[in-house]
Design a protein that fits this description.
heterotrimer; A mainly alpha (328); B mainly alpha (270); C alpha/beta (231); A: 328 residues; mainly alpha; ABC transporter involved in vitamin B12 uptake, BtuC; two-stranded antiparallel ribbon; 2 strands; globular; B: 270 residues; 74% helix
Chain lengths: 328, 270, 231
Amino acid sequence: MTRNFPLGFHIGAATVFAFILPFVVPSEVLATEILIFALAAIGCNLLLGYTGLLSFGQALFFGAGAYFAGLMSIHLPFGLFTVLLISTIAGAAIAVIVGFFSIRRAGIYFVMLTLAFGQLGYYIAFLAEPLTGGEDGLLSVVRPSLTIPFIAKFDFATNTSFYYVTAVTFVMAFTLLQRLVDSPLGSVLRAIKQNEARAEAIGYQVRLYKIAVFAFSGAVTSLSGALYALMLNFAPLSNIDIETSEVILFMCVLGGLGSLYGSILGAVIFLLASDFFAELWPRWMLLLGLMLVMIMLYMPGGLWKSVCSLFARLSGTDDTVKKGGANG
Amino acid sequence: MIYFLMGVGLTIIFGMMHFVNFAHGIYYAIGAYICYQFIVWTGSFWIGLLLTPIVVGLLAYVIERVLVRRLYKMDHAVQILITIGVMLIIREGILIVWGTVPKPVSIPPLLSGVVFFGEFAYPKYRLFIVAVAAFIALALWYLLDKTRFGIMVRAGSENPKMVSLLGHDIDRLFAFTFVLGVALAGVAGALISPIRGADAFMGVEALGIAFVVVVIGGMGSFTGALIGGLIVGLVQSFTSGFWPQGTNVMIYSVMALIILLRPNGLFGRA
Amino acid sequence: MLRMENVNALYGKSHILFDFSIRVDEGELITLLGRNGAGKSTTLSTILGLVPNVDGVIEFNGASLVGMPTHQIAGMGICLIPEQRDIFQILTVEENLQLSIKKGGRWQMSDIYRLFPRLGERKKNGGGQLSGGEQQMLAMARALLNDPKILLCDEPSEGLAPVIVQEIVSTLKEIKDSGIPILLVEQNLKVCEKLADRHYIVEQGKVLHEFKSEDFFTREAIAAKEKYLSV
């Protein structure tokens, strides 16, 4: 459904979504959280959904982004834009290193390498207490302000204003990545997922492409981690632990692999459900486990694809089904 | 040695069916809980230790029949995600049945106290764990190396189709192997319960380390699991001598290094 | 004894056998001839239940085999020696043999070592260390220990030196003389001519011709051989 639309459509769709969201979910903080984790899930989707790389190290990028943003905001006089930009670049750099080593191995060994890097990151953050606050997390993170020279200076102390920062970042990052997966590079990634040996035989430097997709994934995940730390005014150690990797993975799989819209849907559903059940029934993760099994067994395209085909059936156009299918 | 028991179960299952079981840690946790429950009912740790693997094995059998057998031919990534789902279901199940507070298990009176080796005092119960694990290792070695069942398992890990062409029921063999591997995790959980208690989240770290053990040794290799367990144990006690907080950093670094230098682990085959 | 009638077999969406009918009678040695990809090996796999989608009649001594799991079919005494021989590389020669022993079978371990003295010499060696000829011997030995009622043999001479092919042929003959019927897939026409009672010529998943061995040199048979076997 997405591939054949022009860029303007995606910008529009993301903007409308980001504009409506705070009015339909219970709180602005939750809406901010949804956009942040949607970006993280998109980062995971780039690897797993488009390239077929299952990474258990996403929390490393997420946590790193949070620590970078937090540290810069505390110790350095940078503005908002600089903080986010540097966090993003740093995340990409870490991801290139992790990717460079991990992709030397395939299958389960690849997964274990990403896990090992993720765990290393966790323990390093845990041990580097003077810098990261160790188990207590990095406290008193302040939201940097945005200065447009000679015109105005914005700070983002209120939740509403910070939501709009997140929303603008979200729309920009989403559009950029949607463009990426629609580009020839995206096709190469899909080719690698389908049949790596063939992609290699046709003459693509599979290794370089894989490192590149790691870089993009690390960048966007780190960006989301940075936003999260600024939102919370706090960078907890749990940002970088394996459970965060799993949560990101869940959202990605839940919504649907191979579609960026799917990742957004995954984040929406996951966070709404956890918000809804948080007090009602703390054991709701049981349902989540059940859903994960069912989706992997019966709906490998995730919820997004099901929504697409349902929509197609309702409107009676076979065409949409085909496009949705090609997309999944 | 607990790591060996966890690792060997993982490795048998992977070696035979090429199945990556990310739920392995939760069977360890449930082993501890079931042992606890038997102690509550009967007052005897020994009955708990004996019956736990049977109960965990039965659970594994049901899960294999209903779910796991469909996954053998699937991609490893899919197996991992589905078994994480299974892990969540069982974990939340544990929390519903036994509540969120971990359950304490006491060391049986026969094994409390310490033994002196010259100047070193060593807890009796830990010696007991080592002895039980060594016994299980020996029994497994005999089973896999010397019996016809062992030949079948090894043959099945190489070429299941040919095993069934010789008239053996490969599905049953797979089910049995899965049950065996999971029951070993259950035993490990029961054994550790007097030290750590029963805790629904105890499987996470154990799973991580079990994977390290298996990957170091080479996925699917029995000897590998033994050596891997030994290496992890050594690295742990060595590091804890001078950098106690850093043991996990060391363990994961060693694993990453070994994967990068020896793609199939120390004893794995391509 | 073994009968396939109007069998259609599909692998996923590709149709590989079309209205395929052959039979093997008591004590016969039958060959399936045809080019690579004609459907010969598939026929054997289909009989053993290795092809998921099968329609038609496959019977062994009156019992239908369609839909039966492979190990049960094998348990009835239908024994396949696959083209790749499929020796277990990580097992020793002896373990390879132990795996297929059946209690009360006609051949026991001692018979095997008498029949194939080479295997006796190498029984502690790993299956991966054997030469191609030794692997084929081991595959046949393994089949015999499995107490076969019928033997399905896929290109036993493939890739082997002429001297060893001789040995294989004489072993096949011995097996046949002991009364066990054989369904043989073979590219080597000489081997077939020496052994077979009847021949089927297969092309693109269909049985095109059937010749008795005495008719195998008629003009019609020669024409068919030229057309479909490129000899």
